[in-house]
Amino acid sequence: MQLTMSQKPTLHTSISPALLHLYDLSNSVVVIIDVFRATSTIASALYNGAKCVIPVDSVPKAIEISRNIDGIAAGERDGMIAEGLQHGNSPLEYSREFIENKTLVLTTTNGTRLLQMALDRNADTIVSGSFPNLTAVCDFLVKEKKNVVLGCAGWKDRFNLEDTLFAGAVINRLAKQFTIHCDSSLMAETMYGKYKNKLTDFAPKLTHYHRLVERFGLIEDINFCLTPDLANVLPVYTEGKLIVK
Amino acid sequence: MQLTMSQKPTLHTSISPALLHLYDLSNSVVVIIDVFRATSTIASALYNGAKCVIPVDSVPKAIEISRNIDGIAAGERDGMIAEGLQHGNSPLEYSREFIENKTLVLTTTNGTRLLQMALDRNADTIVSGSFPNLTAVCDFLVKEKKNVVLGCAGWKDRFNLEDTLFAGAVINRLAKQFTIHCDSSLMAETMYGKYKNKLTDFAPKLTHYHRLVERFGLIEDINFCLTPDLANVLPVYTEGKLIVK
């Protein structure tokens, strides 16, 4: 739905996949947000020249599809490279040397599941966002002039702060262009306002930080995922694939 | 479950009824939080000498039970006195003159529904909390030394800030006595820390404020509901009733 000039489109923040059903997606651009690390990895791979990223919901499906198209099967379960795969969910794995002109078939714990939920609920447009492509996401949302739902992937339906902080970063930039009347968005922007200049210092307080850094030593991943515009492309979901628009 | 001296009990915050199933309630004290206004009204009625408050999930049930026991049937739907009832969900309606030695049979949009969910999930103990009984809730949680789930009632499963701010107030006082490793609790405490000295000034930014004040002019209700310890009793759910412990 294109709105008339006089109306501002609305913006809502869904802070858990378990709350996504509360929002009307059929007239909205849905931003899938999985900061640690799916949507940071998607931005990284596409920025470095991947042809596309195919998000899938299971390891066998990732293996099967990647075989058929000579792609790279990758993914994680509970923060680790998923059993049966050689590549994981680290944005730093997907350098230009490795991924250029290849297709990445990716399965993750939270992000790919949320994307499927948005599809099932007939989202008008689906894009993927994280700090490394913050500006590309914001520019697109301003240009589209459609209603927006910022969809946080969380962790197994639990609220997490890193996804909410990214939602807050988007709201911080776009507040004047949208009608925002939603306590989740107010909270997200407030939290972002408090920590925007010290995101990496704040990170050790996050539940997911401990999952990734204490167990797997992924401090460089964390820093990449929290730094704006390191991979500033816009992944848009079209016919089963995320491609750069 | 009573914990040993060396272990601190855990504390989690459930920021919407739609997320309550993620937490183990069977070994926990669950604090039902519906700041605007069910749990503020429950505190007010009991503080002013009500014999007990019977929470029910429908207006017909409220009318039937109140007739049988010569109680006061009360409740709201969508912020207004529910059709068929003479009394609503305003804490200021339940003065000592009106409610002393009477039983209040109360049905509300969010709070009573969450209480029923906690019962269905076999919560160990259920108490009700809001700013007017903040200290009573905190004292009880410290004394019990059990795991705690702070259950925010929200608005029709949407996140709201007033319930989360109360969760943050509890965490602010009890952080040292509990093991807290939960992004929802970290967010709640951070938001409370930012606004604790200006809660009533912050209130006009809340979605629910507009529902209550702009539509129904309930500014005095809002101020009561955000002021600590005006009705400092502890409502505990026992055999279908909330009574003062």
Provide a descriptive summary of the structure in words.
Two copies of one chain form a homodimer. Chain A is built from ten helices and ten strands. Chain A has 245 residues and is of the alpha/beta class. Chain A has a single domain, classed as putative 2-phosphosulfolactate phosphatase, CATH 3.90.1560. Chain A is globular. The interface between A and B is medium-sized, with 26 and 26 residues.
Which helices and strands appear, and what pairs or packs with what?
The structure is a homodimer of 245-residue chains.
Chain A: E1 11-14, E2 28-33, H1 38-47, E3 52-55, H2 59-69, E4 72-77, E5 80-81, H3 96-99, E6 103-107, H4 111-120, E7 125-129, H5 134-144, E8 147-152, H6 161-174, H7 183-195, H8 199-202, H9 207-216, H10 219-225, E9 235-238, E10 241-244
Parallel strand pairs in A: 1-8, 2-7, 2-8, 3-6, 4-6
Antiparallel strand pairs in A: 4-5, 9-10
Helix pairs in contact in A: 5-6, 6-7
% residues in beta strands of chain A? 15-25%
**Quaternary state, please?**
homodimer
What is the overall number of helices of chain A?
A: 10
Mean pLDDT of chain A: 94
- The total of beta strands of chain A comes to 10
Question: SSE order of chain A, as H and E?
Answer: EEHEHEEHEHEHEHHHHHEE
| CATH topology value of chain A | putative 2-phosphosulfolactate phosphatase
**Shape category of chain A:** globular
CATH evolutionary superfamily of chain A: ComB-like
Rg of chain A to the nearest angstrom?
Answer: 17 Å
CATH C-level class of chain A is Alpha Beta
Share in helix of chain A: 25-40%
Order of strands in the sheet with most strands of chain A:
1-8-2-7
Q: What is the terminal separation of chain A in angstroms? A: 20 Å
Total count of domains of chain A:
1
Largest interface: A-B, 26 and 26 residues
CATH architecture descriptor of chain A: Alpha-Beta Complex
Largest sheet of chain A: 4 strands, parallel
Poorly predicted ranges of chain A (pLDDT <50, ≥5 residues)? none
Structural class of chain A: alpha/beta
